[in-house]
Queue: 4 jobs
Job 1
Amino acid sequence: MKAYILTLVLASVLLSGCQTLSSNADTDSSPELYQQLGERRGIATIVEDLLYLIVEDERINEHFAGIDVSQFHTNLTDQLCSVSGGPCTYTGRGMRESHSDMNITDTEFNALAENLILAMEENGVPVSAQNRLIKRLVPMYPDIRNL
């Protein structure tokens, strides 16, 4: 059901041309989302659980073969922390550069989003907070897909 909702959100964003969304699309600039995700420690746990789900997911695990897991964990934790309104600064490469030669499909993009939702569920993140985080991540879609 959540994957279906995510697909609907992604479709509506793509149909609107993504021009109405930006990384600051959520007008609530308070740290509430960051807190609902468990702050940096909670986000780091979500990312760790996400990494285990990625390893087990044959739809996407080949894209992560040979990565520096520790660096990936740090970068993704920083990115989600920053996107959620936390005090972190993401210093990793841009999404377009990071994914330029990966040829990510919609199925693979959705698989990672599905795994992120599962990791948040495993950590007791409220559905409303999950949706708010996804809403903030959706504008990255064109750069990840290199459209």
Job 2
Amino acid sequence: MANATHSPKLSASLDGQGVPPRVRFCPSPTGNPHVGLVRTALFNWAFARHTGGTMVFRIEDTDAARDSEESYNQLLDSLRWLGLDWDEGPDEKGGPHAPYRQSQRMDIYADIAKRLQDAGHAYDCYCTTAELDERRDAARKAGRPSGYDGHCRDLGAEQIEEYRAEGRTSIVRFRMPDETITFNDLVRGELTFTPENVPDYGIVRANGAPLYTLVNPVDDALMEITHVLRGEDLLSSTPRQIALYKALIDIGAAKDIPLFGHLPYVMGEGNKKLSKRDPEASLNLYRERGFLPEGLLNYLSLLGWSFSADQDIFSVADLVEKFDIADVNSNPARFDLKKAEAVNADHIRLLDVPAFTEACTPWLRAPHANWPEENFDQAAWEAIAPYAQTRLTVLSDITVNVDFLFLDQPVEDEASWTKAMKGDPVALLTTARAKLADADWTSPEALKAAVLAAGEEHGLKLGKAQAPVRVAVTGRTVGLPLFESLQILGEERSLQRIDAALAKLAA
């Protein structure tokens, strides 16, 4: 970190004032929700629930060109799907600090900006873009910091009038104090920023629109946020916000400075920060594939935090009970899709059978299913579900595991057919059909004995003997336990499919 020094992390008390913590999650409604954003929401939510504090959900929608109602509604829907509830927010939940959408708070920001200027904490800056660029280039060439040089800090009335006569417009800049700023980051320990590396900064555009640098801290102050838990990418703005908080306290708009904790980057392929453009970053991807909310939250919580040295799988309730922001690691966390899938698979296996059956049912209906709606048989599904539960990584896997039950004919997989139909499959299938026709179809063991006996007649072990039967009935060489599958499919349909396979072989 070029502009800060740090010492080891200090103990993270819940707050410095003895009041219940108040945290906030404040996304911008742009594009689809991504997993890094969800990780931030999760850590805030877990901290609030662990400490008995308050979770504030706030929408930062001051960028009309990028924000959309569709994205806003997606955010609400995604958080509800994940079970990350809030105590105050922009929906019907409301709260004592409403409104919770920045686009509805513009009068508040204008008032605060004026009060900051009146108190001398901010000033009008008339520098043009060209002038700023020229002075920055000169500073860089001279080896000096290239931030704003304070040119308009102490303009006299005559100079201001001259600028206005030229038709110049002004932005509002915050006046940074000439002092070192030190704070204890709840994740990274004590950090120190020297004044030459934290120049004055803009808080209001020339058109009067407030900037993020103003609205975010102002909302945190007015909503009495005690802990700001956010991404590492915002760390460099923290000394500016701390200085602004002191000014807000001075004008009576804030009570205290919140504690800050900066969460580690989530990295993608090639050790690059996971961005919205990365396919694996989209929350919708995981929802559409059939991740369980519990499985996804479990994995995301491991991106910078751990439950224990020897336990990666735990419930959301366990997470809430154990979570401590002081245990968050400052090192970047790598998003590993295979690990996420493995964690989700464990959560699928932890469901009781009725819950698993219910969770999968939407995937067995349109638009996910590739069979007619009328073909779906709830009784057959409930019978096969216990055998399918151990085979899934995500819920969408269920369709290829059970489609043989609901398709009129099994899928045509030529690779599976070629692999299974070796040697003399006609002889084997003919014998197996005869023995299955005489078997007790109420018993999977009896069906297994029939296929085993057919294999023995042709000098084949069970594995070799059942492969042609499996492909004839299900269309695939791998799948759910064969003899339980045969029993649930039923004698008539199973034998019809073996007949169809024999006809195909004869042709």
Job 3
Amino acid sequence: MIDAVLHALRLAFTMFWDIAWSLVLGFLFSAVIEVTVSKSEMARLLPDASLRSVLRASVFGAASSSCSYAAVAIARSIIRKGGDFTATMAFQFAATNLVLELGVMMWVLLAFQFAAAEFVGGVAMIVTMLLLLRFTLRDRLRRAALTQAGKGIAGAMEGHAAMSMAAQRGPWAARLVSKAGWVGISHFFVMNWVMLWRDIALGVLVAGALGAWVPDAFWQALFLVRHPVAAALWGAFVGPLIALASFTCSVGNVPLAAVLWNGGISFGGVVAFIFGDLIIPPILNIYRKYYGGKMVAYLFVTSYAAMVIAALLVEGVFALAGWVPHVRHTAAIEAHLGINYTTVLNIVFGAIGLVLVMIFFRTGGPRMIRAMKDGGAHPAH
């Protein structure tokens, strides 16, 4: 029993070691974008569901946080400030599925093809979701959701939403090179870790346990490995449902995605699993508070449909192009600690992260954390 637990913990730590540097890089990039790209005018820039508004929303989302909880909270803030519901949903999907750290992690733990599939599938999912909203969302349901959103009922990460929506003054280049700008970067950087450490820890621990304890025969039976065509279809449908049961955000799900790929889930199934973070039970409960019970059911059905369709599209396109990896035993499952490029990258980015943490603590960072837990924005931002 002890040996089995140690095996699972070793595998979990190895996975975290593989992705640590990419997390620092991704969170640093996200923090820089938060400081240099003002979001105070976002609602004004998303007045309708036109192609221009949707493209803006997708770009804003891709440059924003990868935490699904924060993305949902920011989306509700945009809607309350007058932003269009459909365009804001595009922002929300992009903010969780088109972000840098997610692609880097998938490249590191799986293969570069998965990073490309995440981007292609993310765009396909946004387009599919927008089409579904355009042709199936009733005006009465939309009005009821907007009325509920206007009540301002707290969900989760309200403080981060307020912080992200705060006005930021001056040209972006000036903010980036200023002392205040780097103070802000350090605060956003640490806040990303505060938001996501539980999801990351849970993701690697669950992935380590499943990778160590669940036999390959179980995965192969679950994913219909002996029937390639059925497996390709089934993976797209079952992927989001496994994510629903995992309760973690997309970044936290990447280690488990490596285990599922190793076990035999289809290429598109991995993509669908990663996308499933927007229908996990905690997010659905936040939807209920934000938009009402009927909108929860609508968003669940349409989001799930968009995830499945996008995954099937990715499966077909990448298979026809010959881009689906043939190797199942990923580096995350077979990796061994040692002196290699991962170690060097972890040392370099670890030092960068340590500097940012020191700036955070020396510039009132703990007060920011307390303010955000109370639902307010840090006054410096």
Job 4
Amino acid sequence: MVKTQKWTPQKLWILIGYAAAAGAMFSAPLFLSDFRLNLLAKFLAFAIVALGLDLIWGYTGILSLGHGIFFGLGAYAMAMYLKLEASGGKLPDFMGWSGLTELPLFWKPFESFGFAVLMGILLPALLALVLGYFTFKNRIRGVYFTILTQALVIITTTLLIGQQAYTGGTNGVTGYSKILGQSIASSDTKRMLYWVTAIVLIGVFILCRYIVKSRFGKVLRAIRDGENRVRFIGYNPAVYQMLIFTISAGIAGIAGMLFVLHVGIISPSMMGIVPSIEMVLWVAIGGRGTLIGAALGAVLMNWAKSEFSTTYPEGWTYFLGAVFVIVVVFLPNGLTGLLGKIKLGKKRRERKHEGVEYPAV
């Protein structure tokens, strides 16, 4: 017997909301300047990494404060291709300043755009798989896992800074001019890169939604709510945790590659502890455990950061800090949690005369 999809008014409104959001994204180049469009493209890249982080924190209960590393590895992979493309076969400038006379062997494959994209996904995913194998297999979780991810950030950034001849050191990798033979500074290329970012965001959102709605996603939520119970009924939580951690890292790598295309630089400071913590805040403010909340939190908070820093250059950090405090104290479930409270309150008012009482939230 084939089950038919039941279209309720709520599902229709959700579908209409998704369609409206997609339409607004794709039409943005028609009414935004190149500068604003570039900012929005960067925010969409941040939304992608927020979706991946929500998979492991919101749905699996694993708090990672090291996602900046996975984001940065993807960014460096794309930056290496862009730098070689801009150099036109010559040695990158920072290597010459450091005394190198020929291109290192591990840089040469990055002359291929396809190889750079592949490495931008595989390198973060493999690192997450290795870290997850040794931690989840040994049942290292909670605050101990969080500390390990922060230690990974410190180790990686220190390594990148110390190997200046190969990574650009504290300055990072910058000075891009072309991608696939096209000028990266032209308006047409910027619009095309924006649309690519929007398409990737929608694709990642669909993938994440498929994961959380599948049987695999149900097991993830069960691990979040009671890991020992999941183990007792015959599942191995470590396998699921490793898989979702690897997928999340790969998504962060994709976001990093897109970020570089819009910003034009990647350095160790962009993948350190502070950026990693900010990523967690985006998910918390938007509403962890809700994919749309994670994406909206990333876009809205970075938009607020940009507007506050422009309007109040001397005190914008106080405004942004106040927003964080208000949301954490008064909206522990994020902005999407506020919508849920409003909806529950409406139901209470509608059915109060029927004698139906809803539990307090």
